[in-house]
Write a structure and sequence with these properties.
By secondary structure, this protein is mostly helical. 67% of the residues lie in helices and 3% in strands. It is built from 10 helices and 2 strands; from the N terminus they run ααααααααββαα. The two termini are 25 Å apart.
């Protein structure tokens, strides 16, 4: 939860990548002055197909990023574009949305993750939310029964360790062949979009 000075460099890297992917999805649909609904619809359908592959790989972090971008108001308001997207693709997108439904403490997502065999890339926001909840809602120490003496609240730390262990359970490498050129291209595009957005923010323009 630290704004600066955090040692959780890998977690921060994942969030940076996820946020960059959200911006890239939106920019690929709206950016560079593209206004043709047909071309925009093709890009949307392509991202939905990519999201389907993320689901097959149990990559919920990237699946959430793509789903979030496509449901962003800047994209969802493109009625003429969405009219050209098939009902099949829109139904698939609705299914993705149901995975991340917030009802019953994100029960749909929790049930899916509980049944997964690694490797899996879970949605980190779920676990960070749990960690934050237990950190804020439980004191570091507690008083012994019938005593004013304070001791370490081991129950809190055991629960925290349990959440972290659940994330670690998924940390088995994927058996995927790397494609360096494609990885470099994606990173270049994310960096480019971030630079454009940062420039617009510095100029006082709402993005």
């Amino acid at each position: 939860q630290k704004k600066s000075g955090s040692t959780a460099i890998n977690v921060r890297a994942m969030w940076t990548l996820s946020n960059g992917l959200v911006d890239l999805v939106k920019e690929s649909i709206l950016g560079r002055g593209e206004s043709d609904p047909k071309k925009r619809a093709l890009v949307i359908k392509h991202w939905i197909k990519i999201a389907m592959e993320c689901q097959k790989l149990n990559n919920y972090n990237c699946l959430f990023a793509i789903e979030s971008a496509l449901f962003d108001s800047s994209i969802s308001r493109l009625k003429k574009t969405w009219d050209l997207v098939s009902e099949k693709r829109k139904q698939q997108l609705q299914e993705f949305q149901m995975i991340f439904d917030t009802a019953n403490n994100k029960r749909n997502l929790r049930d899916r993750l509980a049944g997964h065999v690694p490797p899996c890339m879970p949605f980190m926001g779920l676990y960070q939310g749990d960690l934050h909840f237990y950190h804020i809602g439980n004191p570091e120490t507690r008083k012994l029964p019938n005593s004013d003496k304070e001791v370490v609240n081991f129950a809190k730390h055991l629960k925290t360790a349990g959440i972290i262990s659940e994330v670690q359970r998924f940390q088995i490498p994927y058996r995927l062949q790397e494609i360096p050129d494609l990885q470099a291209w994606i990173q270049t595009q994310i960096t480019r979009v971030r630079a454009v957005n940062d420039g617009m923010n510095e100029a006082g323009i709402k993005v």
